[in-house]
Amino acid sequence: MCSKGGRAILRWSDYGINKIKQLSAELMKRSKATYDSVGSLAPNNVTYENTLKAIAEEERDFSTTEAPLTFLQHVSENAELRDVSCAIDKELSEFGVEMSMRQDVFQSMLELQKKNPSLEPEEQRLLDRLLRDGRRNGLHLSSELQEKVKELKKKLTQLEIEFGKNLSEEKSSFEFSEAELSGLSEDFIKSLSRTDDNKCVVTLKYPHCIPVAQKCTNPHTRATLECAFNSRCKVENGSILKQLTKLRNERAALLGYKTHADFITEVRMAKSASAVEKFLSDLADKLKPLVDKEWQELLRFKSEECQQCSLIDDGRINAYDFAYYCNMVKEKNYAIDQDKYRPYFPLPTVTKGLLEIYQELLGLKFSEVKDAEAWNVDVQLFDVHDVSTSTFLGQFYLDLYPRDGKYGHAACFGLQPGCTLTDGTRQPAIAAMVANFTKPLVDKPSLLNHREVETYFHEFGHVMHQICSSVKISRFSGTHVERDFVEAPSQMLENWCWEAEPLKRMSGHYKDATPLPDEMIKTLVASRNANAGLLNMRQIVLATLDQRIHCSPEADPETVYYELMLSLLRIHVTPDTCMPATFGHLGGGYDAQYYGYMWSEVFSDDMFEARFLKEGVMSPKTGADYRHCILNVGGTKDASEMLREFLGRDPTSEAFLRKKGLKM
Asked: Of the listed 170, 226, 459, 601, which one is catalytic?
């Protein structure tokens, strides 16, 4: 391991197929030995060192070894290696279920609690979490019920991994003539590969399907691609999703919870499914007048276009119309044409500006590790040091372009937790940002639209959360906070993409490096609330879908989605599609938690308005406070406590409602 940076800590060439199988087997053997040791202790022999400390160190070593092994399924160019990584993920997850269900280990922790040892706050929090999780795993139940819970957890883990793998491996593509792609930019057309008969090949990856959905004037092309996009894996994942919701609710019932949503929210900021339902329904009621107004605007634009193009106006907004006419509103009402903004956001310029902003704001120094080995030649690696102390904090990877078999969205993956090692030194944190921005052309760099710049800023915020955490115990490192708060730190940082100074710093026309002109910045900022009602209501649709299917095991995801889209957005879902089967958040990790995006936005808006907007968006002092109060502490405190410390008061929803354009 490198302690000061300057070279890659992780040696990716070591992770061949046989090697990761070997590492996985050794990892499980070592881990089981630790759990066996803790579980075999007689009550009078239980101490802090041989129970809590042993488990904390085992969790650290396990996550440090496991993360790179299972990460490769998302990024490796080698299909066989991806398959093995996925298989290992399933095996390690199943092993994790076994260890989390150790009654003997749980009993040793109870014995430690009875002795009431003098623990540091972070250690006490770990003990409380282990006992809480033990009860949530049913370890207080009969052995028969424990076995049922264990089997359900194993089945759920297997299904969740399969759901995600199906989406990642999806490779459908379509062939269109240039005429069928009317409205798309010349650069977009040039970026597409061609068939032997000169047809353009369009995939279902985001760099293709989003521009088509927003810009293609041919409704038949939009309809074809939208139908295919929302039919991805509909048979296999549709079946898996129904199994998942059924099994999740079965487990919740065994553990004494009314629904899976109640089980999940108990340990979140929301605390209950009813609180989430109220939050979503109240916001939907507030948004309804705005949605009605914006919906009429979409219909007006559709009617006018149909008259001009001699198309039949069906008097409704179909699923394949939504993104197209929302984009038209931006272009016509706010003079926002993303194709005109793209030249000002070449990826290298955005990356340079983004990294400079984060360094200045958080008191960090990034240094690229040249010729660093990674899983793909396009991947960059950076060292991170604290400016004030010169301490080496960790490393992050940037993997920004799409390729076959790669994770299809944008995300941050933790590859090594930043925490304290057994000898008292700090283990550096390692994270990877994975995205799918358009690849550069021969004569032109990758050009981003503003939404992609915002996505970049958001996901890199998660990277900083991973890198900056200064905790002792790995379980609390980085983004290991309440799930309905985890998006708040990154959502807060999205605001820099709407402020003049940061926009100037991360823009520069690819031809002459001219930064984004003031007038274009004003227009962009004015457009921030374009379609705010519709877009936020769509988020409510998705969050409500998630809640409903996890509150009722018999609910059919397709039917629920259809009804919500029609009742809340008045949008007709394309027949024979199954959007829920494509909705990766439902597959695992965000089940009964998608509401967290909007829930945490309340806090992100409050933090930005109360501190940064008043004290300066590039204020080093405010940035230092943010790093100290929010990023550094990881999950060692409850989110509500972090917020009070940063804000100097309890959080409110006023800034959130103002940003939505709603009256309080």
From this structure: 459
